[in-house]
Amino acid sequence: MPSINTEIQVNASAEAVWRELMDFGSYADWNPLVQYNSGEAQVGQRLDLKIMQPTGGSFPIKPNVTVRDENQKFEWLGSLLMPGIFDGRHTFEIAERDGGVLLKHYENFGGILKYPMGWFGVYRKTEPGFVLMNEALKKRVEERVAADGA
Question: Which of 25, 80, 83, 125 has the smallest number of CB atoms closer than 10 Å to its CB?
Answer without folding.
Answer: 25
